[in-house]
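Entry 12.
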Amino acid sequence: MFDYYARVYGGFDDKILVRTTYDGTPETLVAISSDGSLNVVEDILFNKTILYGDTGFYTVDFSDNLLTPHKVCRHKFDLTRERCFNIPSVNGRPSVEVLEEDVLAFTTSAKLYKIDTVGVNLNNLKETLLGNLEATGQAIHSIHHKTYSPDGKLIMDASPKPFREIGRYELLQGFSYILPYLVAERYEPGACYLSDYLFLSATEVLDITHFCVDENNSQVNHVNYWR
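Predicted 3D structure (tokens):
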């Protein structure tokens, strides 16, 4: 029995793109023109997110590593690549949309852990605690809204004041694991959860967050507006 797979992508001038694989062969991206001609093209869409604008489209290769940026490439609808640029990975995988004039809008919301003790990092935190040494740090509830022009230039960077849990790290021991965790001793009030958001333009964004005072005291529907 033969194994055949095909996926169709539209929206590329007079072409459609078809990714195919047949009986275990490597995946191939084929451009089919309106006159019926077929051409194998560079697989610019493989493992990428596709975002359509008015005058072109973007492919985004997301990074889940905070040290590795997201790679964005902009293409014309005739599949010509115009340029590629990197977007810093602030706090994990963002939500992305295309605004007017093909502006890219990124939103991220995540809880990030930071170690304040000199000489201690996430790689050696467990060993540090097992050696009965102290490590202090904080959990930061980070929310970011950013917009970029089609050539990759930052237009807007908006972020509410983050809620911070500040304290010391201890070890949590289970049946088959030992993991470090943060014991909060004090708090800095701020935004702790993103409920919703709306980009009004490339330079305006509205969001609704929970505003936390401590782990047991939060206000819902806290509205923020930037321009």
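Annotation: Residues 100-226 form one domain. Helices lie at 125-130.
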